[in-house]
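Crash report, auto-generated. Payload:
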Amino acid sequence: MAEAPAQDRGARSRDAILDSAGELMSRYGYAATSISMISAECGLPASSIYWHFGSKDGIYVAVLERARTALLTALPPAEVPGADVAERLDAFLAEVQRAFHRQPHGLKLLLGLGMVQQDASAAAVAEVHHYRDALVAWTRDALSAVFRLHDRPQVADELARFTLRMASGTVVARWFDPSAVMDTGALHVALLALAAHHDVLVHGTSGEGSRSRDVTDRE
Amino acid sequence: MAEAPAQDRGARSRDAILDSAGELMSRYGYAATSISMISAECGLPASSIYWHFGSKDGIYVAVLERARTALLTALPPAEVPGADVAERLDAFLAEVQRAFHRQPHGLKLLLGLGMVQQDASAAAVAEVHHYRDALVAWTRDALSAVFRLHDRPQVADELARFTLRMASGTVVARWFDPSAVMDTGALHVALLALAAHHDVLVHGTSGEGSRSRDVTDRE
DNA sequence: GTCTATACCAAGATAGAC
DNA sequence: GTCTATCTTGGTATAGAC
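Recovered output after restart:
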């Protein structure tokens, strides 16, 4: 077809705009990112940006949507391999850490833009919640598989909430100290203890302390 | 004296401006809060705001500074009462929760504005870090007292980091779901387990977690 | 210290040629 | 789909009377 290249160019421009916008918005936040900054970053004029997305809010929604699908396709398995709890928990935490490490803006976007909800459009608010809900669901399902919690949904919920708050807190810590990383070692210990506290069977390793099962303690 | 009332009026205006600015900035973020919004909220004209603070950045620094001193004077005791670890930990967590509950904007400010560091002035960045450092120090000292960690500073650091990330994560959770609160129960279990994991003596009490405390692992 | 009025500029957004 | 040029609004910030 003769029009394929044209469509291609448009699609690539669209991606370039989203790349620039995502980078800038995750860095400076939505309000502090201007169309001209995006234009300067990606090389296309402001009017092209408006042609693709219609409004600043439209860019915001598209950026979030792309970040969400990228994150979720990077987190395929809700079922976690491993014979016992400790092994599955390690696999889960490794997955979390890898996703965390490979999605530098995704989470900052969710956090930084989530704050702005109050003045954002309905579509933007919906997309933020969609993103958040997907993360919650994945975490709950994965932890449910790790600890075999199919009959204890409220426990799975608590563990997921705990894990996500830890992850959010780490994102926050990273903008004070960019070298901060997820402390999966501490999270491992904490999740085992929480599970044991709710009388979840954590067979195999000795009790919930499980010092034998160290992940990658950095020091 | 005849000038006292004038000084008073100025001081009260200054406070009113800071109240409005703090409220708006913790809600919408620094960039999305305009001088006219602050002016409308507190009733004083924009020029008065500039007379008091010189620039938008000046307001930002003053707001942060006031939030920091307010929070820190609300957290007086670095030493925590209690005969055993579980009791002191409960006292500590109660203190954290009370501070969390009574400082609705303080932490949101620190988080929301912390993100904006990249484009903020040097004074603003310094104030944000000052605030953050004060929080870290208080938490570390308090936990050090709870667990008697004077000779294990790196363990105190890890516990403090864990606690603060949990608190930050809860602040984030609150702007998705305003009814979210600090889960001090889970934090209690997790901190005890982390301390035990580092071979910190957590003698005998069964805390609130009945069965969470029976592992006095030896190395 | 507080007000009215205003300078100045960058923001978001659009028009219309190509 | 992309460009140049432009409109409008609202932003930060200041001048100067009171």
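Post-recovery validation: Residues 34-36, 46-47, 50, 55-56 of chain A lie near DNA strand C (CB under 10 Å from a C1').
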